[in-house]
């Protein structure tokens, strides 16, 4: 199905499919192994103990790589559209790409440094991943409005901005509730100390994560109209 998509639409489609599978598979394994409670654990909690830790680390690293590629193609697409429309400064496009790649680097840190093994590094990576990700999709939403209506419909722009606003609110709320948790653990049970803060923070974390997934889903239509061609030149002496 992915190979039949026109242009390079298969790239964001693969990113959305792979990242969704990464979250779901690691969650299912962790729950079946009895390592986390099934009721809204942190995403990182589902990839802390083996065997799910290996699956989580591998799949999230691939997700980060696919996100890097998707963001770069999006950057090239905007540069190409901007040649005729001039709706955004090239420096703004570059800045947005760099912010997005920072988020991908944070994702790699989260996948590499386990939550319980190196909690401080893991938390910094998560903060960078989610924070940069929220800034990236917000900037992309603004760019979409600037390119409207020639390159994007108002409906798509509204969808992207709605996802950005919801993700931003969820990110801030996640930090507020997480800051009130006084312990680091993964085996939470209802009724214990700080469980409510953990529960609300985890809901916000999943909201932000799937906000990113749904945002990249909106790229598929744009990427259908764009193809990459590699040209080679042979010079004779």
UniProtKB/TrEMBL annotation:
CWH43-like N-terminal domain ranges (all copies): 8-225
Signal peptide: none
Compartments where found: Endomembrane system
InterPro entries: CWH43_N (IPR019402), DRAM/TMEM150_Autophagy_Mod (IPR050911)
Principal cellular location given in the protein's record: membrane
UniProt keywords, alphabetically: Membrane, Transmembrane, Transmembrane helix
GO biological process: regulation of autophagy
This protein's GO CC annotations: endomembrane system; lysosome
Membrane-topology descriptor: Multi-pass membrane protein
Transmembrane segments: 7-33, 53-73, 94-112, 124-143, 155-177, 197-220
The keyword Membrane is assigned to this record: yes
Family assignment from sequence similarity: Belongs to the DRAM/TMEM150 family.
Stated name of the protein: DRAM1 protein
Organism: Pardalotus punctatus (spotted pardalote)
Gene name per UniProt: Dram1
